[in-house]
Amino acid sequence: MSQAHHRKKHPEAVRQQLLEVAAKLSLEKGPASVTLDAVSQAAGVSKGGLLHHFPNKLSLLDGLFADLTDRLDQALAEKMRDDPEPKGRFTRAYVSVFFQPEGMADGEKWQVLTIALISEPHLRERWRHWVERHLSENVGTDSALDAMLVRYAVDGLWLADLLGSPTIDAANRAAMMDKLLAISRL
Amino acid sequence: MSQAHHRKKHPEAVRQQLLEVAAKLSLEKGPASVTLDAVSQAAGVSKGGLLHHFPNKLSLLDGLFADLTDRLDQALAEKMRDDPEPKGRFTRAYVSVFFQPEGMADGEKWQVLTIALISEPHLRERWRHWVERHLSENVGTDSALDAMLVRYAVDGLWLADLLGSPTIDAANRAAMMDKLLAISRL
DNA sequence: TAAAACATACCGTCTGGACGGTTTCTTGTC
DNA sequence: GACAAGAAACCGTCCAGACGGTATGTTTTA
User: Fold this and answer.
1) CA angle A175-A177-A178, nearest 5°?
2) Which of the nucleotides in strand D have any atom less than 7 Å away from a protein CB atom?
3) DSSP secondary-structure letter at B25?
4) Which residues of B touch A128 (CB under 8 A)?
5) Taking the mean position of all CA atoms in its chain, how far away is CA B133?
């Protein structure tokens, strides 16, 4: 019998740890490596412990999705709050959040989101709803073709980062960001 | 013993069929559903038969990757041949191939490529090489930030299609294509 | 002391793949 | 053109391990 049983209980911390480990695993070793055994072990919890927090695997992935989109929503809302110009506001927030250097810790997690998204058909539906919601919430200010083009470009860069494709260096990255922000104001 | 054993042998056709089935399965039911059993059964071949053409699962995925990138290369080369303007030629080909309506059959397969790419860390390396090759082959003509922006936008749209996110309608799609082509000539 | 938060043990299923056999194709020889 | 003989193209079975999940315990917390 291990000592883990006897340690102090921090259910919320354990839950968070499980989500983080799942994200890390998916990012580093591919989504196929996200197994209940691997996740629980890497999180220092037994499989039974994991299954206590998430009754099945799907709910674990759902938890991951909810966690990540919550952070994303928060970051977007914050950026939008600081932007006085209505036109293209959401698009600029989208750009900024992606390019922000300090958010790279979260950035990696969003890569995970993409991986999980593509792998699990069930999560695609959730993502569709997320996009639909933000699209309809910002219709009028961010529906222009130019705005969509900008957001698509961000997604493309995101994907390139995710796949580890050779992208642009830091200097050009900043220039790219300026370019995109400029287009969003057209 | 079934009759399948006695049928005419068409190794090349069977091989192709296996690749197509694998692609279809991955697209429709997620990459996790691409099992040797599922693929071989859907292709009307025994698992042994499948393993004859592809000695292991990885080589099946590799075959899929090679098949798809070959088609992509061909389509790109064809488009580039018809383009007299050197500047941004590759980028325009990239745009055209993605937006071509008749290529939608292949388009779906490229979606599969993306799925497989993201799921299998091993294939990411191959993709990195593909991108690197084309980037270096077209350095000078397609290295401008504007050109990269265009290609990233295409990738973003591609991803949106892949995820089934709500995108733009056909009319706006054409307008978007024109926009992207215009930027490639700046 | 009841419930929450874990741990341990175990099970049924699926999966990749090894293996040995069978049938068809191809090639060289006469 | 007949025919042996090896190579190529399959088939069907079996297995070890991994995986998701259940059932049941034990400890901590409220």
Assistant:
1) 65
2) 8-14, 18-29
3) H
4) 163-166
5) 16
Distances (CA, A) of B41 to B21, B44, B65: 10, 5, 21
Strand D contact residues in chain A (3-42), C-beta within 7 Å: 5-6, 8-9, 33-38
A115 close to A162: Cβ distance less than 8 angstroms:
yes
Q: pTM for the complete prediction?
A: 0.88
Provide the Cα torsion A157, A161, A163, A169; round to 10°. Answer: 100
- pLDDT tens track for B29-78: 878 888 999 999 999 999 999 999 999 999 999 998 898 888 889 999 99
CA distance B113 to A152: 19
Name the CATH code of domain A1-55 (choices 1.10.10.60, 3.40.50.300, 2.40.50.140, 3.40.640.10): 1.10.10.60
Question: Which residues lie below 8 Å from residue B75, measured CB to CB, with a gap of 6+?
Answer: B93, B97, B100, B103, B106
